[in-house]
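FORM 7B: Structural annotation worksheet

SECTION A. Query
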Amino acid sequence: MSVRHIDGSAGDANYGTIGKSYSSYRQPDPRIAAVINDALGNAGTVLNVGAGAGSYEPTNRDVTAVEPSASMRAQRPAHLSVAIDAVAENLPFPDKHFDAAMGTFTIHQWPDLKAGLGEMRRVTRGPVLILTCDPNEVQSFWLNDYAPDVLSTEARRYPSMAAIREGFGAEIDILPMPIPLDCRDGFNEAYYGRPEMLLEDGARLSCSAWSFVTPEVAKGYIDRLRTEIEDGRWDEKYGELRTQPEFHGSLYLVISRGMTGN
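SECTION B. Predicted structure
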């Protein structure tokens, strides 16, 4: 059962509070977008579930966006369609209505993963794409040394690949998604070689896992990170990442090709 916050957010994070600067830091990265666009194939109609401010929505296709948070819907740029106020678990569309469907950085917000994925599969004839993180790999990122409660929260929230497979009721393709050094989409791992970005309040608030620790705890984490950046200890441990062209972390594109008969 979905729990709706005041602004309509249906997950465990209240985007009416944390999402106000989201579109400033969470811009779609064109290299990630190209992989998603390629995976959509020749689909003419696309459903975007948990669409947020519209990141990664292709502009060369007919996109229908679904987003329960009023704050996030309000941040959608004018060139994108107006998002429908609905949740993944109850999509207001007939069976096999869309050529393809997608959801980026959203399934960890869903109260009922199996129902949401089942609904996406029901209304889609072709591929369903999910951009998500593997919880088994989240805490391997260097930020875990500085903000362990943040990354342990992320690891708990992201569903396993086995749970995603079960939700679709069919086999899935799991494709690693390389993260470029100058990634425009500001999730935690996007700053793998730019640790200074995580000193910015807006950058952290645009990663929902930071909202699950108290301001006092977050301040302690950031104070230590700032100190180690300034005195050179971060670079002693991780400095080679500053020039590493891409990073293979916990980010994956999961593709459900559909069940027999779709």
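SECTION C. Observations
The longest helix spans residues 215-230. The two ends are 28 Å apart (CA to CA).

SECTION D. Sign-off
Analyst initials: ____
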